[in-house]
Amino acid sequence: MTDTAPEVLIGVDGRAGRITLNRPRAINALSHAMVRAVDAALRDWEHDPQVATVVVDGAGERGLCAGGDIRAIHDDARAGTGAARDFWFDEYRLNARIARFPKPYVALMDGIVMGGGVGVSAHGDVRIVTERSRVAMPETGIGFVPDVGGTRLLAGAPGELGVHLGLTGDSMTAGTALACGFADHFVPSAALPALLRDLAKLPADEAVARHATEPPADPLSGARDWVDACYAADSVEEIVERLTATPGEGPGRAAATLATRSPTALKVTLAALRGARRLGTLEAVLVQEYRTSCHCLETADLVEGIRAQVIDKDRQPRWDPATLAEVTPAEVAGFFAPLAGRELRL
Questions:
Q1: What is the pTM of this model?
Q2: Is the peptide bond before 24 cis (omega within 30 degrees of 0)?
Q3: What angle do CA 49, 55, 60 make, to 5 degrees?
Q4: Alpha carbon separation from 119 to 92, 229, 289, 302, 308 (Å, rounded)
Q5: Looking at the annotation, which residues are catalytic?
Q6: pLDDT tens, 260-312?
Q7: Which of 68, 146, 209, 272 could form a disulfide with 150 if both were Cys (CB 3.0 to 4.6 A apart)?
């Protein structure tokens, strides 16, 4: 791929509209222009009789999409240009469009699928994972809060698994993604080219049925007891206390992971997940997420988290506040405050 190649490849193959995210060196991280291009294609195809199915995949071998372009978000958070707010406004509207798209929307969630990659895939109605899939909402590690409708997906996972995955940012393998409602079918990665050929000729359900096989086991299936017991707590502090007091490698690893995450992001994420359960609809959740995302731009943690993980890569973020005890309920509530004159419109 040359530097002048389109960031999204859009075309029609037989009965299938094809969307390929085309920034493989960045694991197809989403730019604002990519979001607009995908949205325009869906609008065009919604009433196009030639297009019976839409298929979304990613160029290269590493994954569908590693998320939004967080370097650009870092730069905007420092400069205050408003570009990140505009990006999220259009991105979340795209997430809603995908969820209500009237034709089969097939997402090939092969390889890395994180953050914004979940937003362009897991709201579709035919979501395919492979043995290479690693699906995650890792936002708390950069001082951010799960978005792109991710809090609704996490809130809908069985028991407290979504709270565990949302707070830690841990990756889901194919089995866990299926068990937690982020995916529908398992297809071996070697079968994806044949699946794409069949999607160009056959109805989506028939094409997928030809290639879907029994998924691998869910590594979290044996963790429900301690996950549900620990993450049902009312506060992040109590979750950490319960994890620390619970014997076993899993609880200990989770507690250690939470100790590295932004204390503010952890508390806001827990409130967002509990709120998403009450809100119900994707549209209402996206409005809530737009508020939390925009308020994150006003914090030091988002800039610092991206610096530590992506810019300098020292993996030593200096969170402010540095402890859970210093994050007050009033500060958490502020992340959910309405945005005067600039609420998300769906």
A1: 0.96
A2: no
A3: 145
A4: 8, 29, 12, 20, 24
A5: 68, 116, 139, 147
A6: 999 999 999 999 999 999 998 999 999 999 999 999 999 999 999 999 999 99
A7: 146
